[in-house]
Write a structure and sequence with these properties.
Helix content: 25-40%
Largest sheet: 4 strands, mixed
Strand content: 15-25%
InterPro entries: Retrotrans_Pao (IPR008042)
């Protein structure tokens, strides 16, 4: 039998060892199933969204507080998407990230069948996002399809809190991170340290 030469097989042979190592690292990552604090009486959801030229994504953390005031923050869910093939501006990608965050938050709350959640939607803000925050409920701005989707999928009767944070864990989704670094990345698994603070900087976007 004659040997069959597959175009590009040489490159695959070079890349395959590194791919195997990545899979092995992924298999070694342990994710906790129980993420709440023992005897928790307050549960808050903290969401972050970010976008770049490569991708955009959203991540949600759950913070549980017990009767003694002890709090614990753990990663709940995240999702990312690559940038569309068609050119899209960064501000519009930021809106796509906000829509993705809103959908994730709503989907999770529906799964829990929670009627009055103590949720807290927070996002690391830059000047562009802060400008969008000021226009969040403006009629002309809501004509944008992405903002209409975000408004429709937002949690009803709750204010939107915008946090200006120096560290945004969703940056890891939009800009990427090696698996080896992700395994021991404290901020990714337990959220930014500012979530442990009693007083968080915030700007409330009124409807």
């Amino acid at each position: 039998m004659n040997a069959v030469s597959i175009p590009g097989s040489e490159e695959f042979e070079v890349l395959s060892p590194s791919c195997i190592e990545i899979v092995q690292v992924v298999n070694s990552i342990n994710v906790r199933r129980w993420i709440l604090n023992e005897q928790s009486i307050i549960v808050e959801l903290h969401g972050f969204a970010d976008a770049s030229e490569l991708a955009y994504g959203a991540v949600i953390y759950v913070e549980s507080i017990n009767s003694y005031g002890d709090s614990e923050v753990k990663l709940l869910i995240s999702k990312s998407r690559v940038e569309p093939l068609k050119f899209v501006t960064i501000p519009r990608l930021e809106l796509c990230a906000a829509v993705l965050l809103s959908k994730l938050m709503r989907r999770f709350l529906r799964a829990l069948k929670v009627e009055n959640p103590a949720d807290l939607i927070s996002r690391g803000m830059d000047p562009v996002k802060l400008q969008l925050c000021e226009l969040w409920w403006s009629p002309s701005f809501l004509l944008q399809p992405e903002m209409t989707k975000c408004r429709d999928s937002s949690i009803e009767t709750n204010d939107l809190y915008i946090r200006e944070l120096k560290s945004n864990p969703s940056d890891l989704l939009s800009r990427g991170l090696k698996v080896e670094s992700l395994q021991h990345h404290e901020e990714w698994w337990n959220g930014p340290s500012v979530l442990q603070s009693d007083e968080l900087p915030e700007t409330v976007c009124e409807r």
